[in-house]
Amino acid sequence: MYFSLEKFSKLGIGWNERPLRETDFYRLCRRHRITVDELPLRVSGFYYCVSGWHFIAIDSKLPARKKLFVMFHEFAHYLMHAPDHNATASYHGVGRQTRKEREADHFALVALIPRIWLKTRTPDEIIADEGVTSGELATRFSLFETYGV
Question: Is the pLDDT of residue 73 over 60?
């Protein structure tokens, strides 16, 4: 994750500085020329690349917070795992938890739970006020302790 931190900070969107919102996701996708489709899916979302064109599909039936997490998770696949050529796809929540899936989850958690919250709010406040699960928050604190993000 260390090598990616510089890349993340260069996004210029406030990653880990403030909670990112749906408007931030769409701004990033426009800047990186990623086509986004929201439609009823059987999976939460997926990133795919065909002939150098990048796409993210999001299940339109997801609750708002889950949808936001999936959006940034899929954007992380583009940012960290995008292929240069050929067709490929990464599906959120399908198959075993690989290193790439964990990395995408971590990027999304930091996007939604910024460092300032960890420093200024109690875990109970974050869980109650933001709808974060205790498992998500535990993982987020672990990222903060391990990588300082």
Answer: yes
